Amino acid sequence: NAGVMQNPRHLVRRRGQEARLRCSPVKGHSHVYWYRQLPEEGLKFMVYLQKENIIDESGMPKERFSAEFPKEGPSILRIQQVVRGDSAAYFCASHPGLGAYSPLHFGNGTRLTVT
Amino acid sequence: AQSVTQLGSHVSVSEGALVLLRCNYSSSVPPYLFWYVQYPNQGLQLLLKYTTGATLVKGINGFEAEFKKSETSFHLTKPSAHMSDAAEYFCAVSETYGQNFVFGPGTRLSVLP
After folding, report:
1. Are the Cβ atoms of A93 and B46 closer than 8 angstroms?
2. In terms of pLDDT, which residue wins out, B76 or B41?
3. What whole-number distance in Å separates Cα of residue B64 and Cα of residue B60?
4. Is A104 an 8 Å CB contact of chain B?
């Protein structure tokens, strides 16, 4: 049973470029969460998606950031025109869905470095 | 709104000593509670969870936690620390199972030889 797969593990971008982070949830999980973690800080919620639907994006900056979880394929977190402050570890977690007695399952994260 | 506090951003114990990591939550409904561990450069791994039933929950690696409703607490303990326990520990709460997971700020555990 494959867990949550995130790629790439490490991503280096220059200021102004686009960063695209991918997350394949646990098979059968229809809900995906994205979190950001800065050094020496905890997890900050960004966005919560169900397939083809954004349920809660209250933690995601209104500009430059977007997320999707298409019917087929991985969830994508996109950061346009990256700045140095975007450097962080981005974690994806998946869940079977509302009411399911299951915790969040996390991937190993993508570490984004903006130079 | 639900929230989680973890007292002590950094806890140090000696190898073989008791580990106690504190977690308090606020929730308007009976919560679901979780402890996760994060090793360097890795994602979060579930240690244990409380949903319903027995208030003392046993997890992996010898950890356990007790849900105390009257104290709104879910402290994590381990009788004897091991060097391999050094990591970051996160407490989390969910009011609506499958939505709205809220994480505490984390506690970094150091184990001294």
Report:
1. no
2. B76
3. 8
4. yes
3-state secondary structure of A77: strand
CA distance A29 to A41: 28
Give the C-alpha separation, A100 to B19, whole Å. Answer: 31
Chain B positions touching A105 (Cβ under 8 A) are 46
Q: What is the mean pLDDT of residues B97-110?
A: 84
Tokens of A48: 């919560």
- Shortest CB distance from A42 goes to which of B51, B101, B105? B105
Q: Which of B34, B43, B102 is facing A91, going by the closest CB pair?
A: B43
Q: How far is A45 from chain B (nearest CA, A)?
A: 8
CB contact under 8 A, B43 and A43: no
**In this predicted model, what pLDDT tens digit does every residue of A14-66 receive, in sequence order?**
999 999 999 999 998 999 999 999 877 788 999 999 999 999 999 999 999 99
Give the start-end residues of each E strand in chain B.
3-5, 10-14, 19-21, 24-26, 32-38, 44-50, 56-58, 64-68, 73-78, 87-94, 101-103, 107-112
The radius of gyration computed from the CA coordinates of chain A, to the nearest angstrom, equals: 13
Quote the minimal CA–CA distance from A41 to chain B in Å. 7
B98–A97 CB contact, under 8 Å: yes
Query: Smallest Cα–Cα separation from B90: which of A42, A4, A90, A59?
Result: A42
Instruction: Test B99 with A93 for CB contact under 8 angstroms.
Output: no
- Which residues, at least 6 apart from A77, have a Cβ–Cβ distance to it below 8 Å? A20, A21, A23, A34, A46, A47, A65, A66, A67, A90, A92
